[in-house]
C-alpha cells in the first residue's frame, strides 16, 4: 500500500525553525502516476480545529501557495528525484502547534483536504512560548 511518511516534527521554542519532510516509501501509487506527477500539500490540524492548508506545490514545481498564517515564514520545495517534499518553517510561534500532514493529489495543485488522494500519518510540531 501507499506509505507517505512525514518526519522532522518535534518540540521547539518560540522563534525556532524546523524542516518537515514527506516521502513516499511504499508501493507505487495506484493513481497510475509516479510521485513526481502528484501535487503535494502540507496541512495541519490543531486540537479542536479543522485541518487547514499550510503550503502547497504543484507537480510541475512551478506553482506554490501559502496560507496567510505562514506566508513569509515557510518555504515548500520538492525533489522529484528523491520523491520528497520539504516544508521549511521559521520563526515558529505557539499558534503553529499542530499535527502536520502531507497529502498527495491528482489535480494540478491541492488547496483543500478533499483534493487529497493519499495522506501521511502526520508529525507533531509543538512550539513552546
Could you please describe the fold and organization of this structure?
Strands 2, 4, 5, 6, 9, 10 and 11 form a 7-stranded mixed beta sheet that branches. The chain has no helices and 11 strands. With 129 residues, the chain is mainly beta. The mean pLDDT is 92. The protein is 0% helix and 46% strand. The chain has strands at 4-7, 10-13, 18-24, 39-45, 52-57, 64-66, 74-79, 84-89, 98-105, 118-119, 123-128.
Secondary structure elements and pairings:
Layout: E1 4-7, E2 10-13, E3 18-24, E4 39-45, E5 52-57, E6 64-66, E7 74-79, E8 84-89, E9 98-105, E10 118-119, E11 123-128
Parallel strand pairs: 2-11
Antiparallel strand pairs: 1-3, 3-8, 4-5, 4-9, 5-6, 7-8, 9-10, 9-11
Short descriptors:
mainly beta; 129 residues; 7-stranded mixed beta sheet; 4-stranded antiparallel beta sheet
In brief, what are we looking at here?
The chain has 129 residues and is mainly beta. It has strands at 4-7, 10-13, 18-24, 39-45, 52-57, 64-66, 74-79, 84-89, 98-105, 118-119, 123-128.
Binned, the helix content reads: under 10%
Radius of gyration: 14 Å
Spatial gap, N to C terminus: 39 Å
Number of helices: 0
Q: Quick one: biggest sheet?
A: 7 strands, mixed
Order of helices and strands: EEEEEEEEEEE
- Strands, count: 11
Percent strand equals: over 45%
Low-confidence spans: none
Amino acid at each position: 500500500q501507499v506509505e507517505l511518511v512525514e518526519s522532522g516534527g518535534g518540540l521547539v521554542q518560540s522563534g525556532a525553525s524546523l524542516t518537515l519532510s514527506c516521502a513516499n516509501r511504499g508501493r507505487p501509487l495506484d493513481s497510475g502516476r509516479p510521485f513526481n506527477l502528484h501535487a503535494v500539500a502540507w496541512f495541519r490540524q490543531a486540537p479542536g480545529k479543522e485541518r487547514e492548508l499550510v503550503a502547497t506545490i504543484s507537480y510541475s514545481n512551478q506553482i506554490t501557495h501559502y496560507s496567510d498564517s505562514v506566508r513569509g515564514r515557510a518555504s515548500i520545495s520538492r525533489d522529484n528525484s528523491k520523491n520528497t517534499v520539504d516544508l521549511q518553517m521559521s520563526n515558529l510561534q505557539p499558534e503553529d502547534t499542530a499535527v502536520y500532514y502531507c497529502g498527495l493529489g491528482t489535480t494540478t495543485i491541492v488547496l483543500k483536504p478533499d483534493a487529497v488522494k493519499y495522506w501521511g500519518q502526520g508529525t507533531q510540531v509543538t512550539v513552546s512560548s
